[in-house]
C-alpha cells in the first residue's frame, strides 16, 4: 500500500503529461521533425526495435563495466585515504581538481593513448563514477559513532578490526547514496564515450538521428537512456534495502 501511495502520483502525473503533449502536437499541427508526439515516438520504437536493443546492449555493457571499475576504484581510494589521513590531506584536493577537467576534452586523449576499443569508453565511465563513491564513502567513515569506537578500543580491537566491524558497516548508507548517483551517471558517461567513434550504442543512435533530423528517433534514444538509468538506480536501491535490512537484523 505504501508503495502504491508513492508511485501512484508519479504515474498519474506522467500520464497527464503525455496526454497534454499528444494534444498540443495535434492541435498545433507540429511537424514530427520539430516535436514528435508520444504516439510517433512509440511507433518509431516498434519499427526500429531490433536496432534499439542492439545499441542498448552496447551501452549497457559499457555502463556496467565502467560502474564496476569506478566502484572498485572509489572504494579503494576512500579506504586508503581514510586509514592513512596523511595521504588524504595530500591527494584529496587533487581528486577534487580532477572533477573539474572536462571529460569531453579528456576523451580524445584517451583515444590517442588506448585506441578506439572498449577500454577508453570504460575508462571515461569509471572516471565519472568513482568520485561520488569516494566522497560519500569517506563521509560515511567519519560518521562512525565515537562511543562505539572507544568501546572497541577498550576491548582491545585492532585498527583493522574496528574498520571491518564498525566503520565500514557504519559507512554503508552513505556508500549506497554515492553508488546510486554513480549508477545514474554511468549511463550518461557511456553515451558520451560512444561519441568518440563507436559504431554501436544509444549515443551513436542519438548522434546519427540528430544529424538526419529524425527527432522521433532522438526521443527514442533519450527514452531508453532514461529507462536504463532508472533501472540501475532501482536495482541498487533493492540491493541497499536488502543489505541494510540484513545489517540491522542479523
UniProtKB/TrEMBL annotation:
One of its GO terms (biological process) is transmembrane transport. PROSITE patterns: ABC_TM1. It comes from the Bacteria. Belongs to the binding-protein-dependent transport system permease family. It comes from Polycladospora coralii. GO terms for cellular component: plasma membrane. The keyword Cell membrane applies. It is found in: Cell membrane. This is ABC transporter permease. InterPro entries: MetI-like, MetI-like_sf. Its main location: membrane. Keywords: Cell membrane, Membrane, Transmembrane, Transmembrane helix, Transport. Gene3D superfamilies: MetI-like. It is a multi-pass membrane protein. Residues 56-236 form the ABC transmembrane type-1 domain. The chain crosses the membrane at residues 7-30, 60-84, 91-116, 122-141, 218-239.
